[in-house]
Amino acid sequence: MNQDTIKMLVEIAVFAVGIYAAMRFLRTTRGSGVVRGLAIILLGLIVSFTVLINLLDLERLDIVFQSLRNIAVLGLIVVFQPEIRRAIVHLGESPIFAKLLRTETRKIHRLLRSVARLSKERIGALIAIEREGSLAEYADSGIHIDAELNSFLIESIFFPGTALHDGAMIIRGERIVAASCLLPLSQSQELDKRLGTRHRAALGLSEETDALAIVVSEETGKISTAMAGKLNYGLTMEQLERAIETALGIKKERGLRARKEADGEPA
To answer: Per-residue pLDDT tens for 150-185?
Structure first.
C-alpha cells in the first residue's frame, strides 16, 4: 500500500467521522426534513467530489470546488445557527463531563419522593429529564426557573390552580430549568384513547428526542414513562426508579447509595 492510498484512506475516514457526527447532531434537532436532507446531500457531494478530485487529479475542478465548498459550509452554519448555539451551550453540561467529574447526584431520590406524593394525591404532572439531546427549544416555550432540584418545589409547581401547573417541567442535571413548557403531541394511532394530553405529549417528546418523560395521571394517579417512542403505563415506584437509573446510566449500587445518603437530608 503506497503513501497516496494511505492518505486517501485517512481522508475518507475523516470525512466519514464528520458525516456521522453531523447526522447524529441533526437527529437531536427539530429542523425540518427538507433542511436535514439538504445538509446530508451537501455533505455527500463534498465527500464524493473530494474523492473524485484526488483520484483523477482534476486541478481545474478542484479550484471551482474549493470555492463552492466554502459557500456550502458557510450556508450550513447560517441555517443551523440556532442549533449550533444550543449545542455549544449544552456541551458544558454534557453527561460525559458529569461522569468525568464524578458528581454524586440525589436526583433520583428527590424525583421519586415528589412523584410518589403527586401520585398519592392524584395531582397531574409531566416531567421531562434531559439526556444527551438538548431540550432548550422546549424550555424556551415555558417559564424559566433555573432552580435546584427540590421535591417540594416540584409538587408546588404542579399543584392545581398554580400558574405553572399546566405543561411540562424540564430537568437538566440537578436543576429545574423551566416549567409550563409545550411539548410536541404524538400522532400515534396505537395510543390508548383513554390517555390524555400529558401522555400524548410525553410520547411525542420521546419520539423526537432521547429524553425520559415521566407522567402522573390526574384521573388515576398512575405513573408512566416515555422514552425512545415507547410508553410504559402503570409503573410501580421500583419500576420508575429502574427506568430513571437506566436513562441516566446510573448503576444500581450507586442509586442505592444515593438514596441512603438522601434519606436524612431535606428535599
So the answer is: 999 999 999 998 889 889 999 998 899 999 999 999
- Contact criterion met (CB below 8 Å) for 146 and 172: no
CA atoms within 13 A on the CB side of 44: 7
C-alpha to C-alpha distance for 252 and 258, rounded to whole angstroms = 10
| Residue type for position 189 | Q
Q: Which amino acid is at 118?
A: L
| Percent of residues, the chain, with pLDDT higher than 90 | 40
236 three-class SS: coil
Q: How many helices and strands in the chain, by DSSP H and E?
A: 11, 7
pLDDT range class, residue 91, cuts 50, 70, 90: low
Interacting residues of 225 by C-beta distance below 8 A, sequence separation 6+? 202, 212, 213, 214, 215, 231, 232, 235, 240, 243
Q: Is the pTM of this model over 0.70?
A: no
- Comparing CA positions, the residue from 206, 267, 241, 250 lying closest to residue 95 is 250
Return the closest-CA partner of residue 227 out of 240, 251, 209, 200.
209
* pLDDT tens column, 118-139: 999 999 999 999 998 889 999 9
- Full DSSP string of 115-154: HHHHHHHT--EEEEE--SS--HHHHTTSEEEEEE--HHHH
